[in-house]
Amino acid sequence: MYRIEKDSLGEIQIEKNALYGIHSVRARDNFPITKRGLDHAFIRNIAKVKKAAAILNGRNGDLDEKKTEAIIWACDEIIAGRHYDDFIVDLIQGGAGTSANMNANEVIANLAIIRLGKEPGQYDVVHPIDDVNMHQSTNDVIPTAARLTVMDKSKELLDALNYLVKELEKKAEEYKDLIKISRTQLQDAVPMKASQVFTSYSHMIDRSSVKISNVVKYMKHVNIGATAIGSGINTTPAYNKGIVDELSKVSGYELSQFYDLYDGTQNADDFASVSSEIRVCALSLSKMANDFRLLSSGPVAGFGELELPDRQSGSSIMPGKINPVMPEALNQAAFLVIGNDLTVSMAAEAGQLELNAFLPVMLFQLFESIDVLSNSIRAFVDNCVKDVSFNEERCRYEYEHNLAIATVLNPLIGYEKSTELVKKAREQGKTIFEIAEEEYGLSRQEIEKHLFVSDSEEK
Questions:
Q1: DSSP track, 164-225
Q2: Residue of 256, 315, 389, 443 marked active site
Q3: How confident is the model at residue 458 (pLDDT cuts 50, 70, 90)?
Q4: Which residues contact 338 (CB under 8 A, 6 or more apart)?
Q5: 165 lies in which domain range?
Q6: Beta bridge partners of 191
Q7: Is 237 contained in some domain?
Q8: In 3-state terms, what secondary structure has residue 122?
């Protein structure tokens, strides 16, 4: 069974009980790009914008009571996570998000029509544009819903980063008494506390968390009320005065309206800034993953210091081989995020004049980056960090026999004499500790107390 809907381009048959309408169908057919559909959090936030507008329009007398109640009910249905299957458009679409906005308008209108006892498609009861989209435009609805979505998703990312930081701190505490050899340019360097391997990562990740949190705060500035370009055309003074406060109540965020609505409508630098900080975070995470892979390499013919938990067989041909699959997965997630940021950057730059037509691809990539990074961090913590361990015997042996310990002798006997000690230790097959005591009477205790000056309590 079908119903017929028409627009300025002609007529289309639509399934009788479908909640979407002709605009959604045309967009579905025009833009089979990613075939992933709209992000569910994004759908819910579009509905929140529509709900806030309906509440305000009803209060102001622009929308009658029955329509207001029905539209609010329809929005609540979507906010509760229902009817996702009726959102049939792709997020990557021409028209700066018009298709996503119209898909929401049609679904909400048809739900409201059903609420009022009529059948989908009877738009004389509740109209998708005249009623659901009253005092709105795609150009303020979609960016506003996108900002709410970025804030929602960022909570998950920040929670995941905090989770990682706490687990790294636990590992640092676990290995606070173990000394190992550091490496610079991949060559043996001076001794370090094994705990510092983890604390340096935790501080780096915590710093990224703070920066992401700071830049996400700008998402609270919304351009709702701007309509097409920032002038507020098709709105009323009462609507423009009250819409941000109403949306704050519906969304749970303390929002503010852009001081310059033209700026807030045409420029996407805030989204680019969030993407950029997430990219930097991905760089840091990938660096850490690289270190985990290096330190665990071998285990016989490599560094073999860090022991990663065995998660799965590593080869279809080499028996017993175990690969560092969790760091590898985190690396790949980081690569994806870094590439996504380039897309966001190019799209932000490419916007012309009073509107950026490329916001859809920015949102597609930004939402993906936040989700992928959040998921990969949690997987890395649960399946790697929690059970990672140092090969303490190997670390102690490398520390004991490493000639780089001679570095600490520079202020005690001078660089030239220290160099001579290294040569003698190498020739005689002895440790620096042994040679230093033989040649200069320096005890192990005397040498070791100079190893970690920056870790002293006086710092």
A1: HHHHHHHHHHHTTT-EEEEEETTEEEEEEETHHHHHHHHHHHHHHHHHHHHHHGGGGEE-TT
A2: 315
A3: very low
A4: 279, 282, 283
A5: 158-392
A6: 181
A7: yes
A8: coil
pLDDT tens figures, 319-348: 788 899 999 999 999 999 999 999 999 999
Give the model confidence (pLDDT) of 44-67 as tens digits: 999 999 999 999 999 999 999 999
Active-site residue flag, 376: no
Residues 407, 381 share a domain: no
Residue 147 lies in a domain: no
Give the Cα separation of 459 and 457 in Å (integer): 5
User: Are the CB atoms for 104 and 128 separated by under 8 Å?
Assistant: no
Question: In this structure, what CATH number is given to the domain that contains residue 27?
Answer: 1.10.275.10
Based on the domain organization, do 375 and 424 belong to the same domain? Answer: no
User: Hey, what are 380's tokens?
Assistant: 């890395």
Phi, psi (deg, nearest 5) at residue 310: -75, 120
Do residues 164 and 113 both lie within one domain? no
Question: In terms of domains, do 225 and 341 share one?
Answer: yes
Whether residue 369 is contained in a domain is answered as: yes
Mean pLDDT of the chain: 95
The reply to whether 311 and 165 lie within a common domain is yes
What backbone torsions phi and psi does residue 189 show, to the nearest 5 degrees?
A: -125, -145
